[in-house]
Amino acid sequence: MTSADLFVALACASNQSIFLAGTSGPVWRVVQGVVRLDRDCGPIRQPVQLALPGDLVGIEALCGQPYQLSASAFTRCRLEPLRPGSDAAPEPLWQQALLQHLGRSQDMAQLRTGSVLQRLSHLLNLMGLERAMHEAGRLGQADAVRQALPTLREVALLVDAKTETVCRALAQLLPPRSRKGGPTRRSTVRDRPIHAPGRRATAWVANATPMGVAA
Question: Please, what's the b/e burial string for 55-64 (b: 16 or more CB within 10 A of its CB; e: otherwise)?
Answer without folding.
Answer: bbbbbbbbee
